[in-house]
Amino acid sequence: MPQLAVMLGVSVLTGVLMAGLAIPFAGLAGVGANDVKKVASTMPLPLDTAPSPERTRILTSTGQTLATLYTENRVQLSTLDNVSPLMLKAIIAIEDHRFYEHGALDVEGTLRAFVTNQASGDVSQGGSSITQQLVKMTLVEQAETDEERAAAKADTYGRKLRELRYALWVEEQKEKDQILLDYLNIAYFGDGAYGIEAAAQHYFGVRAVELDLRQSAMLAGLVKNPTGYDPTNHPKRAKPRRDTVLDRMAQLGQISTSEAAKAKKSGLGLRVHPTSNGCVASKAEFFCDFVRNWLLTQPALGKTRDDRNRLLNRGGLTIRTTVDMRMQNQADKAVKAHVNPTDQALGALAMVEPGTGRVKAIAQSRPMGDQTGKGQTYLNYIVPKEYSESNGGFQGGSTFKVFVLSAAIEKGLRMSEKIKAPPKLTLSQESFEDKTCPKKNLVGVWDVSNSTTNGMKDMYTGTRESVNTFYAQLEQKTGLCKPWQIAKKLGLENPGAQVPSWTLGIAYISPLEMAEAYATFAARGVHCNALPVTKVSDRNGTEIEIDGANCKKALKASTADAVNDVLRGVLEGGFADNYRLDSQAAGKTGTTQSNESVWFIGYTPELATASMVAGANSRGNPISLLGQTVGGQYVAQASGTAMAAPMWYDAMSVIQNWLPDTSFRKPDPKDVRGTPAEVPRVGGMDPKAAKRMIEGRGFTAVIEPGQVDSEYAAGTVAYTSPKGSAFSGDTVTIYVSDGSPAPVARQPKPKPKPTTKPTTKPTDPPKPGGGGRGDDDGGD
């Protein structure tokens, strides 16, 4: 073992010299042959050379840096080919010019430093080799407590001898190039920059391989005292130190004296590029915060939350997220235009891609930060409580009616069935008990009233006009369990208590959960968990398996198609008609009885967006919107139509231009009862063939006995009743022709025209996506 032979050859002297680099000669009497013998008997000592902490990058969906997370701002390099040759020459010249010639201990350099230090009576010159310095840096890096860090830096004989033992092992196990690379990766270069790559980017905005002579000399000079020579704080110290490196390089013949002189005439040439740490400086601060908290739930990143946090901040991960910065910027712009940071209200938007669950953007009106006077907060009000320390959301209002609607369709109730919806109803709570679920022992009565329209309503008009007394009675038909279960399957972590008023949205919920739920309808019943991250790779580029969106069927496609058909009416003639997009869209408004929150959740087949404006004090606790000034406008009456829908439209009217122009699937009359459908024209057909065709369109068909006058051939179909528009599941009667045209009736004399217009007109069956318009969204 060559290194051991050297150590034994210099015996006590080398041990003394090693300690004497930092301790006056008078203190060396304690080092004797027994110390050296003890050290020599156990050499070398294996060193744990685990990778140094490296910064983690969070990327957008297109690969742009969204944020960095780190305890040490470091970018690990894998080869010396990634470092400028001038940088390699500079660091070797100033720190260990015989690096490639000696082993762990440079006896010549150690003796020279010892003599110089004794002559000066101080530590004016160091004698540690690059390998020894690497060992010390590694031990300091690995220290987890203040005591361990102090021990790794202590000026004791024991520490120096232990470092030498480690250095011997390193020299035996690694090639010189690898040792130099490890040294450049671990070294601290001041101002928060660890490793040569991060230092090059930080001080000069270049990669390490691009460093020129003056840049290389300055960085090489920092390693000895990165704080004292920090050019951002001490430029008057940094330049002389750089010039010292240039002179040393010229002295060793690595550069010419003229090159050194020319470089010394130039300034430091700094172009500092600070690297932000964390989400505060991110362009999508709360999306970044969501990503980080979501990753902290992933078992693949560590057994405990602390383990995962440590990996995120030290592991050099590359995290590819789902955020689309075009959508994110538009969402931020829309929220800021409608709700100010210091308002006693919160504005929020959440966007989810149907069929994938990918979260494309989230935005809120209160920015991230600790300046509460400016409305800043670290609480993320857009996401579920699992990923935030916020209060867990706001009441959903009438946006919950869609879950009762889904349950009714799944149960096979006719969508065209009329229910009388009076202005007020008093209903027995017991009447909502569901035999398919555990008994809830509901007692008393529920008083429910409308704030929109009254009268005979079906699922189209009752939803479009958000009629509370209609939905109360529809919920009696579905029971409480099924709508609640559907909400759970569609992504609501805690849908709330199963009580009759549940259909009016009394549960507290986040915008992201509602966007996730409504995305299920757009995806024709396929639910996907909201997903902010698509890929995580470790520092070596190896992919780490994380949770996916777990997409699976939650509703029948026919049910989702029917829901979409109903909700199209809200934007096509309903309350939100003023916010109709160029492309096909559906949606639902919502306002809570307490006026604490208003909603509009609108979606196309390609994107679901939840828009919410909620009254909230500085701590985020719900308060009424009434009497507040929100976005510069006094709120005398709160509604989803007036406050949440315009914010939704401002974002989606632009974003729709980046989405495919697709349409919702029409509900199949064979699968859903009571959907508007066209009765096929069967005149002149064989009655049995006509019956099969009509039934194939989702109707019940009967052939009326006997025959009627008709111009069609005898025995063929004369006509049907009804004809034209009807509802799937309706009975269509087929009349058979006798072949004799009906006699021509004598034309009556024309009646005089009325002098005034009729006050009423016949009401046609509602068409898919169409219908009348009310005055309010009725989210009470």
What is the strand and helix layout of this fold?
Elements: H1 2-20, H2 33-41, E1 56-59, E2 65-69, E3 73-74, H3 85-95, H4 107-120, H5 130-142, H6 146-153, H7 157-173, H8 176-186, E4 193-194, H9 196-204, H10 213-222, H11 235-251, H12 257-265, H13 285-295, H14 305-314, E5 318-321, H15 325-338, E6 345-352, E7 359-364, E8 394-395, H16 401-411, E9 419-421, E10 424-428, E11 445-449, E12 455-457, H17 459-464, H18 468-478, H19 481-489, E13 508-509, H20 511-522, E14 526-527, E15 533-537, E16 543-544, E17 552-553, H21 557-571, E18 586-591, E19 597-603, E20 608-615, E21 629-630, E22 633-634, H22 640-655, E23 676-679, H23 687-696, E24 700-708, E25 717-721, E26 724-727, E27 731-737
Parallel strand pairs: 1-5, 3-4, 24-27
Antiparallel strand pairs: 1-2, 5-15, 6-7, 6-20, 8-13, 9-12, 10-11, 14-17, 15-16, 18-19, 19-20, 21-22, 23-26, 25-27
Helix pairs in contact: 1-2, 1-4, 1-7, 3-10, 3-11, 5-6, 5-7, 5-8, 10-11, 11-12, 15-22, 16-18, 16-19, 16-21
Give, in spatial order, the strands making up the sheet with the most strands.
2-1-5-15-16
Number of helices: 23
Task: Tell me the number of strands.
Answer: 27
Structural class: alpha+beta
Rounded mean pLDDT is: 88
Distance between the termini: 86 Å
Structural shape: elongated
Helical fraction equals 25-40%
What are the low-pLDDT stretches, counting only 5+ consecutive residues below 50? 1-33, 754-780
Q: Beta-strand percentage?
A: 5-15%
* Largest sheet report: 5 strands, mixed
